[in-house]
């Protein structure tokens, strides 16, 4: 017997939604997902009319679907946003070079201008160079810290008001678990925030906070979106992989587990009486970019690389005293890079 779509009751059901177990036709699935993202955007006041939004685009499924859905919702609901694609080329041969080709095609497909910035031009090192120098251990620390700053720099060049990233519900649930494993209570409370960095120059928003990865993949697949699907070649060495597997196992047993992990972490709010305080954003004395310390993590890591002491700054203990300044990356070095 043909199973009809639970919503329209007319079309044949094409899929079972991983999040709700509803059996839907393709069109009703698209509408359900798009409406949920719209609701998330409106309820959480993620955007204001007239804002310039940098969509952090890696060429992967999440950011590709994000660029697609934001373009669509911006037109459908007259958000009045100016959208831009912003990509960081970490310099990972056989991975990022291929995914950037996808983003270049997305620029044409969605009609959104693209800006690419590379670690090579910002820091003088590619990730391939870094892995050659330090090995596979800790390379994700360098990549994560440099990417975060590189995205901020790119957004500043684009004069963006906000940045939207493709972090989905699974990513956030994984981060919750990692923070529990590390006993990092302040981060545990903060990692589920849908808007971060509001106190600084560039707030970051996560429109896919409640969107399941499996549904993003289904959406991209059924809509035949052009995205790059290979994992980072250095990813097998990341601790996140184990948390990812665990979240997938939990989801298998109980699909709600992903939402529940996010909800439970939301209950962990910082108790100011415990003496723990949130880092106060300031400026790095060397490069001038946002930092809660005198010298930002990117400058400390870069100093370690340039001095042949790559473990400098990798430890999670906070440096009270800033190390002596060496050559810093000057903001001026990347001025005039807007294409
Ligand atoms: N190289 C990059 N350039 C621009 N944005 C990036 C880059 N890498 C990651 N991001 C942003 O951070 C988000 C989460 O990063 P993650 O490492 O999970 O991405 P990914 O798996 O490479 O690709 P995606 O999340 O797009 O499927 C991405 O959705 C994207 O918005």
- Strand portion: 5-15%
The unreliable regions are 317-339
Main beta sheet: 6 strands, mixed
CATH topology of the domain at 24-169 and 192-236, what is it called?
Answer: Rossmann fold
Dominant shape: globular
Query: Strands of the biggest beta sheet: in what spatial order?
Result: 5-4-3-6-8-7
Radius of gyration, rounded? Answer: 21 Å
Helix and strand composition category: alpha/beta
Mean pLDDT: 89
Per CATH, the superfamily of the domain at 24-169 and 192-236 is HUPs
Distance between the termini: 57 Å
CATH class of the domain at 24-169 and 192-236: Alpha Beta
Query: What is the share of helical residues?
Result: 40-55%
Region (Disordered): 316-339
Subcellular location: Cytoplasm
Main location: cytoplasm
Keywords: Cytoplasm, RNA-binding, Transferase, tRNA processing, tRNA-binding
Overview of the molecule:
Among the domains are: 24-169 and 192-236, Rossmann fold, CATH 3.40.50; 280-311, no CATH class. Helices cover 43% and strands 10% of the residues. It has helices at 26-43, 61-76, 96-110, 119-123, 127-134, 139-157, 169-182, 185-190, 213-222, 240-253, 257-266, 297-306; strands spanning 15-16, 23-24, 52-56, 82-89, 114-118, 162-164, 195-196, 204-205, 282-283, 290-291. The strands form 3 sheets. Strands 5-4-3-6-8-7 form a 6-stranded mixed β-sheet, sandwiched between helices. A two-stranded antiparallel sheet has the order 1-2. The radius of gyration is 21 Å and the shape is globular. The protein starts with 14 loop residues before the first strand and ends in a 33-residue tail after the last helix. Residues 317-339 have low confidence and may be disordered. The site of adenosine-5'-triphosphate has 16 residues, from helix 2 and strand 4. Pathway: tRNA modification; 5-methoxycarbonylmethyl-2-thiouridine-tRNA biosynthesis. It comes from Coccomyxa viridis. Residues 53-229 form the tRNA(Ile)-lysidine/2-thiocytidine synthase N-terminal domain. Residues 282-312 form the Cytoplasmic tRNA 2-thiolation protein 1 C-terminal domain.
């Amino acid at each position: 017997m043909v199973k009809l779509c639970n919503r329209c009751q007319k079309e044949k059901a094409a899929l079972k939604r991983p999040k709700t177990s509803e059996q839907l036709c393709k069109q009703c699935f698209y509408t359900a997902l798009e409406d949920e993202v719209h609701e998330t955007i409106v309820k959480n006041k993620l955007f204001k009319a007239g804002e310039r939004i940098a969509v952090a685009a890696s060429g992967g499924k999440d950011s590709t679907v994000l660029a697609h859905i934001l373009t669509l919702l911006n037109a459908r609901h007259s958000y009045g946003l100016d959208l831009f694609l912003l990509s960081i080329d970490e310099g990972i041969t056989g991975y990022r070079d291929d995914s950037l080709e996808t983003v270049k095609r997305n620029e044409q497909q969605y009609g959104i201008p693209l800006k690419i910035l590379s670690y090579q031009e910002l820091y003088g090192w590619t990730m391939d160079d870094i892995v050659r120098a330090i090995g596979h251990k800790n390379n994700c620390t360098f990549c994560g810290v440099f990417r975060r700053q590189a995205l901020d720099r790119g957004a500043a060049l684009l004069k963006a008001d906000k940045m939207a990233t493709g972090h989905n519900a699974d990513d956030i649930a994984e981060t919750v678990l990692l923070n529990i494993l590390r006993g990092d209570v302040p981060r545990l409370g903060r990692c589920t925030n849908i808007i971060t960095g509001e106190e600084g120059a560039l707030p970051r928003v996560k429109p896919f906070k409640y969107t399941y990865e499996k549904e993003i993949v289904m959406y991209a697949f059924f809509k035949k979106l052009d995205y790059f699907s290979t994992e980072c070649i250095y990813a097998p060495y990341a601790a996140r992989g184990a948390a990812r597997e665990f979240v997938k196992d939990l989801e298998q047993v109980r699909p709600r587990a992903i939402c529940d992990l996010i909800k439970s972490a939301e209950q962990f709010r910082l108790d100011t009486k415990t003496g723990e305080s949130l880092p106060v954003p300031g400026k790095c004395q060397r490069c001038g970019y946002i930092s809660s310390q005198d010298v930002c993590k990117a400058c400390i890591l870069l100093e370690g690389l340039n001095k042949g002491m790559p473990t400098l700054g990798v430890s999670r203990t906070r440096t009270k005293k800033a190390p002596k300044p060496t050559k810093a990356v000057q903001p001026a070095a990347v001025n005039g890079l807007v294409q």
